[in-house]
Records
---
Amino acid sequence: MQDQIDRLRAVAVPEQKLFIGGNWRPARSGVSLDVISPIDGSRLTTIAAADHGDVDAAVGAARKAFEKGSWSKAAPAERKKVLLRIAELIERDALQLAVLGVRDNGTEIGMALKAEPGSAAGTFRYYAEAIDKVYGEIAPTPENVLGLIHREPVGVVAAIVPWNFPMMIGAWKIAPALAAGNSVVLKPAEGASLTLLRLAELAAAAGLPEGVLNVVTGLGAQTGEAIGLHDDIDVLAFTGSAGIGRRLLEYAARSNLKRVYLELGGKSPNIVFADAPDLDQAAKLSASGIFRNSGQVCVAGSRLLVERSIHEEFAEKVSSIAAKMRVGDPLLLSTEAGAVSSVVQLKKDLGYAEQALAEGAALRTGGKRILEETGGFYMQPTVFDVAHDMTLAREEVFGPILSIIPFDDEAEALKIANATSYGLASAVWTGNLSRAHRMIRGIQAGLVHVNTYGGADGTVPLGGVKQSGNGHDKSLHAFDKYTDLKTAWIQL
């Protein structure tokens, strides 16, 4: 496989256009943005910079397609065929898509293959199979009344997705929205647009009607703002930073009060008790839970809470794993942690490490930029011992930096775990079933792993509480975002 990867990394990437109404077109302004590969800092290609007019054209194409009804009114079984075909085409081109994505955002190829095309294909297949099995309801009424509850597509759905796993997270939003019969306007992150532009091409080849899926690329401050303020978008689904999430809510209030569903990241606590069944396995998965994709994962276990009686032993296990991780060229199958997505993100990560030292945190390993001679953006997996109220323990870094915090008992573990504005993911390692259930109930998070970290598949929802957001991706619950309930009250 390495030979195939090496051949694909050498393929030139043409300048990219917008996909609107089934056609490829440049931005109206003619402006484009450079795509810089984090692997070596080189210019990979360009993407079109959509402005308000381009977004308006994309929304218009989506609305026209929705009202035409070739997709929105198609039988669920017909939509199912197209979505299954999209999944097949993604799987056919999986390696090509994975390599293209890695060149764009720096995720290690071993992870990208599974998390990007692999996950996206599975998501399209899941919702394809689900859509003709989602029923309406009959209300319990008097015998002279029939109460029916219908589910209908909302209309035009906009999705704004981040740069860390664009295909995976994009599919989480696109697939259920399309399955329900909606039209979609998609804005990828400017730092990772290439695979989603390719997905639009595959969807058209699979038979998705013109205008049902549109992709507009560009800067958040321009393209994203135009989406947020547009009066003809019914639902906006977003994954990204809390600051941008707040802005999108403001845009909705200033425009048509579109429904906005947000997944805004986290500062996830990973709690290890002394009675964990396998400390070596816990250390291994705790390390991968923060250092995979260089920590650029919304559910990353960035706060490691360890019971004091095993604190030093366990912290040393995790630090040893971190120090030995193979960081480097993400297109080598042997690489365990790839590149940080951009030089801006790298500087931010390094700044957090410097601030941690200034606040008195103890550095166990890492903390430095490496492989600078390649031109790429790489950082050592970094482990700090911190106090629970330090900046590094409170703010989402989105980089390869782990904070380790000791605790004495369940009550203190819960107090520290919940002492954050976020509430997305978490984990508990214990051999005590009763304790596991107490912690599941006590932790303020949308996802609680027990004796593992990661791996929750598409059958269960992913969403947060507090400032981690208000919507759920994955599972049948995703349909709640992209369908309206309509009641029919029939006097017999």
Note: The longest helix spans residues 109-131.
---
Amino acid sequence: MSRTVDLVITGDGSAALAAAVDALQRGRRVLVALRSGDARVRRRFRRCLCKTTGVDDSQFSVMTNAEVVCVDGTDGVEAVVIVTRGRDACAP
């Protein structure tokens, strides 16, 4: 699967949430990659983003069971490779 986003965030902590909120408020498209496979973590993160930013969930995606394995580019980040383990729950 390939998708274009403005920012990839890893983790579900307060810093990750703050970065996602800031990017969404600036109109950026965000992908959050969570290592956890727990659907409750994904739902909590999504709910918090929608409530805090007021954006609908078409502006961001949350992927579970995910790990960033490669970041590449010439003059900046051009590609991020994410591997999913087990059952992936990727929601728009």
Note: The chain has a mean pLDDT of 87.
